[in-house]
Amino acid sequence: MQNFDVGQRLREMRQDASLSQRQLAEASGVPHGQISMIETNRSSPSVSSLRKILGGLNVSMSEFFEPDAPDTQSVFFKPQDLRDLTTRLYSTLDDPRGKITLQQIGDAKAHNLQILYERYEPGADTGEQMLEHVSHEGGVVIAGEIEVTVGEETAILKAGDSFLFESTAPHRFRNIGDCEAIVVSACTPPYL
């Protein structure tokens, strides 16, 4: 995969929205310096940080990473048809440790339902800044183990275990194990 310049893409989208870095930071609820650090590629955002910033632009991760993805009325999807929401965050890394791969089935906005195939390499973490959004989500661990924190509760889920919660509760996903964790999840309304 060729390198994807996250900073340049964010800068272009911010400028297209006629926002200054400070205005985007205020709309996103992140420090002004974080926008500058990402745009100049001095910092790589976590999944949770990037999603929060994109929320200030009212843009999904699918629109950020795959702006030209065709709208499709397909009912069935092959692995190569899934929309890649994260791999480009890691396109400059040589080491897969800590990598999160989130692939979306179809057009989540059109169905008001986001279904994800998630892969967490050892050390992967959605970020210290917990995710919070107006939604409901649930999922099933298919392989490996994943630590899930929702509010004050934390559990290590193994293959066959599942979760379901209101997404306004602060939450985080981390692979603290030594092998890949795979999760299939759903979120409504779509968040990423």
Automatic annotation (TrEMBL):
Residues annotated as domain HTH cro/C1-type: 10-64
Gene Ontology CC terms, in alphabetical order: cytosol
Sample GO molecular function, one term: DNA binding
CDD domains documented for this protein: cupin_XRE_C, HTH_XRE
Keywords associated with the record: DNA-binding
PROSITE patterns found in the cross-reference section: HTH_CROC1
Highest rank taxon of the organism: Bacteria
SMART domains: HTH_XRE (SM00530)
Stated name of the protein: Cupin domain-containing protein
Species per Swiss-Prot/TrEMBL record: Pseudorhodobacter turbinis
